Amino acid sequence: MLGMLAVIAGILTAAMLLQYVDGQLPCPLCLLQRMALLGVCFGIMLQLRYGFSYRHIGLSMVFTLFLLIVAVRQTLLDIYPRPGHEYIGSAIFGLHMPVWSVLIAVALFFSFAIQLIAWGNSSKSKIKPTKHSPTLRYLTPLLCLYVIAIGVVNFLSVGVQCGLGQCHTYGYALLK
After folding, report:
1. Which stretches within 21-128 are classed as H helix?
2. What are the tens digits of pLDDT across the range 62-96?
3. Which of 38, 95, 122, 137 has its CA 20 to 30 A from that of 14?
4. 3-class SS of residue 121
C-alpha cells in the first residue's frame, strides 16, 4: 500500500511539475482526475494508518471508479477532437494523461482486487497498521504529509486558475 501511495504521489508530483515548470494548465477534466487520485490516496492513507478495512478499500475503489469514468470520457472526447480541442498537454511515452489515467485506474482496480483476494476473507486480517513496523512508522507519515501538501497546493492552484467562475486552460483567472 505504501508503494501504491508513493507511485500516486509521484504521478501527482509530475502533473504539478508539468503545470508549473512547463506552463501546461490542466483542463477541468484533468483537475477531476487529480481529485480522484487524491481520493484514492486518502483511502490508502486510512488503510496505512488503521490497518486493513473493507471501508478503506471501498473508499479507494469509489475514487478509482470516478477516475476511470472521467478518464474514459476525456479519452473518448479526444479520439476525434474538434478544432481547438485537441489533447491538452504533452504526451508521456506517447500517451496523454487521460489515457494514462485509464491505465492507472485499471491497475488500481487490479491491485485492490488482489488485496481483497489475499486478505479479504478473514475477519482478523494479518495486515496491521504501519505503526507496528519501526521503519514504516517514520516513512509513512512523511509520505502522507507529502500527499496532503500536494492536495493543498492543488486546491490553491485550482482556486487561482478558476477563480469563482468556469475553469479554462487559458490562464490563471485570479492573476489577470
Report:
1. 28-50, 54-79, 97-119
2. 999 999 999 998 888 877 766 665 666 676 777 77
3. 137
4. coil
| Number of residues in the chain | 176
Global pTM reads 0.84
Burial class (CB in 10 A: 0-12, 13-18, 19+), 166: exposed
Q: Which cell is 70 given?
A: 472521467
Between the CA atoms of 105, 99, 149 and 2, what dihedral angle is there, to the nearest 10 degrees?
Answer: 40
Look at residue 41 and tell me whether its pLDDT is greater than 90: yes
CB 103 within 8 A of CB 92: no
Q: Tell which phi-psi region holds residue 62, choosing left (phi > 0), alpha (psi between -120 and 50) or beta.
A: alpha
Q: What are phi and psi of 122, to 5 degrees?
A: -90, 145
Q: How far is CA 72 from CA 66, 91, 136, 165, 167, in A?
A: 10, 17, 35, 25, 20
What does the pLDDT read at residue 148? Answer: 94
10-18 CB contacts, 8 Å cutoff, 24+ apart = 11/37, 11/104, 12/37, 12/38, 12/41, 12/147, 12/150, 12/154, 13/150, 14/92, 15/97, 16/150, 16/153, 16/154, 16/157, 18/89, 18/90
d(CA 153, CA 88): 21
Angle at 71 between CA 107 and CA 146, to 5 degrees: 65
